[in-house]
Specification:
Length: 302
């Protein structure tokens, strides 16, 4: 456990106040747990009633959105003619934030219920010191992962269909993946932590009612993701968030409201120069996708 526990021990009014203060600040980073109020969480849920124009919920995006860069073969991909390891499986992907979230602060900052407390609809996400935005990073990793998953026979459910919109809110993202009956789901983020801190962190749910039946399976999936990240990428475990790259969170709608096995991964710290060089590289974004693919295959086929 980490100091995050303190957040949901606070009175509900404290969360509402924190959310209101965060909303007043306008922009919020996809920050680490350290010193961050629950309301500023990166992975919020979407409003139960969202503007159709903004909440670009959807299932499978058009084929035209498939990344043009075909990834190199990996150990996770079976040879041609072999049975596809993910045939019949449904995988949920939530690419954190959205490319135009910053254009509609009133929508972004309205409060939604995350299963425990009120928090803002979403944030703009983090960015590197050179201005590379987190929503673009998460979207590109998600597209690589979607292509890999489809190649291995899976059906993919996405929480957004482009990087040119606003929303959906984090509670709605959780509902999209629940209603899609995903066998497992991954929330993809990049952190906005302290500049001196490096590495990935896997955020796991804490039992709160809606997610009770997927706590142990999510923990197992989290171990698979951690193992795959260490094996398939050069990103180290976080030096500032959690223990051995694992942390538990009760303040995020995406984890509080999930009814399918799920973890959220902060793939690295966008505010750290070494991590930023990796996270902004298309090659490394493909490596992340391959690591997540390996974790998903291990989780579902073991
Ligand atoms: Zn984020």
């Amino acid at each position: 456990m980490t100091g995050d526990w303190r957040w949901f021990r606070l009175p509900r009014q404290a969360f509402a106040l924190a959310a209101a203060l965060t909303a007043g600040l306008g922009l919020s980073a996809c920050g680490s747990s350290a010193g961050r109020p629950a309301a500023a969480g990166p992975q919020a849920a979407a409003p139960s009633v969202a503007s159709p124009a903004r909440a670009t919920s959807g299932t499978t995006p058009p084929a035209s959105a498939t990344p043009s860069a075909s990834a190199t073969p990996s150990a996770a991909t079976p040879p041609a003619g072999a049975a596809k390891p993910l045939a019949g499986k449904i995988i949920g992907i939530d690419p954190g934030h959205n490319g135009r979230n910053g254009t509609d602060p009133s929508f972004l900052n309205h409060l939604i219920w995350n299963g425990r407390e009120w928090e803002t609809c979403d944030t703009t996400g983090a960015q590197t010191d050179s201005g590379y935005p987190e929503p673009l990073f998460t979207w590109r990793v998600a597209r690589f992962l979607r292509a890999d998953l489809r190649r291995d026979g899976a059906q993919v459910v996405m929480t957004r269909t482009s990087n040119r919109g606003v929303g959906p809110c984090v509670n709605r993202r959780a509902k999209i993946l629940n209603r899609g009956h995903a066998n497992v789901a991954i929330d993809i983020h990049g952190d906005g932590g302290p500049a001196s801190g490096r590495g990935f962190a896997i955020l796991e749910p804490i039992r709160d009612g809606p997610n009770d039946r997927v706590i142990s399976s999510s923990e197992r999936f989290g171990r698979d993701v951690r193992r795959a990240f260490l094996r398939h990428t050069s990103m180290p475990e976080s030096s500032y968030d959690g223990v051995h790259g694992i942390t538990y969170r009760g303040d995020l709608a995406g984890l509080n409201l999930t009814r399918v096995p799920k973890v959220l991964i902060e793939c690295g710290n966008m505010r750290n120069a070494a991590d930023a060089r990796l996270l902004t590289s298309a090659w490394f974004q493909r490596r992340i996708a391959r690591a997540l693919l390996a974790a998903i295959i291990r989780f579902l086929t073991r």
